[in-house]
Amino acid sequence: MKSQLKLAALALALPAIAQAQSSVTLYGIIDAALNFQTHANPAGDSFIGMQQGNEGFLSGSRFGLKGVEDLGGGAKAGFTLENGFLANNGRLDQQGQLFGRQAFVTIGNRFGDLAFGRQYTTANTMLYYVDPLGVGAAPSNSWMVYLTGQRYDNAVTYTGKFGPFMGIAEYAFGGVAGSFQARSSASVGLKYADGPITLVGDAQYTHDSASRLARIYIAGVKASVGPAKLFANYIYSHRQAGFDSSNGGTDTASITSMSTGATPTSVAAINSVFATSRRDDFFTLGASYLATPAITFTGSVMLDRTRADAFSGTRATAYGVADYALSKRTDTYLAFAYDWVRGDWSGLLGNSTTNYTGGSGKPLNGNDNQATLMVGLRHTF
């Protein structure tokens, strides 16, 4: 009788035990901001509304589901489904994809994890650790991703953590019949974090649908000094003649989210296709300071030098943010950004040109500088 009672008790407990071995978490961020921006069109008119490029200044709005299951023996499986959306109108972000931010399944153990699906590029992941805003959201503070890309489709990724080191190796299949190389991407990233110092490095190779190559190398550092954090990173980008990373077109690389989108009206930006080979050298210097447990000040300067045959242009941004934490989950902020361009990038800001391709199309007809002021509210759940 006692044995039967024990068996019955165990049977009743099994669902609870199984539940304890797996879990699903709902999470998200909503960042909405009022925006004033100068030189938002070729006439030099100002823009007043919500968001910049449909984004708040600090974070892209999103919600997601994460699941994990304990497989026993130190092994585990899991998944991530993350949706990006536009807080100002409720529409889907990331080219209108339902889970355009992330969508992958994982399996792993103490030796590392394998992930399969739509994932961040290793370049974007490594920049997160050494950028003052962890790669922000608004075009004024995140336009470096037009060089590196943000996400791969059809990606297989290995991530391993060993003491202070973390390594990532990633390959994205191109999915083009008859060509293993077309639209494919391969990359590797390494992070070292010990005490107040974080160092990162990354190498990324991406082919477009015609197998033209873009090479990207990254080095960066973050140093904590008391209540302050100092940031510096460098991106080297070299694209072969005609490299095209546009999303949704007939010539699509596996890198997505690299298309243009600098201001509410501009359609030709730093990502433009060049008829000749193109080199970009991108530099970031920044700092953040925790003035009180609730107040953080962040500032940064970003500069990109573009060189190609018969083309020489520079784009730069300086921004500052004062952030006040209302609670652990909610903060409000005041942000200011100033963008300017020189040389052959003149006319980049607030333009309406659609066919500018590195000097071989219609000249840019916008402005050489632009100021942005945003007051935002962000909630994390």
UniProtKB/TrEMBL annotation:
The keyword Transport applies. Residues 1-20 form the signal peptide. One of its GO terms (biological process) is monoatomic ion transport. Pfam families: Porin_4. Gene3D superfamilies: Porin. GO terms for molecular function: porin activity. Keywords: Cell outer membrane, Ion transport, Membrane, Porin, Signal, Transmembrane, Transmembrane beta strand, Transport. It is a multi-pass membrane protein. Residues 8-339 form the Porin domain. It is found in: Cell outer membrane. GO terms for cellular component: cell outer membrane; pore complex. Homotrimer. This is Outer membrane protein (Porin)-like protein.
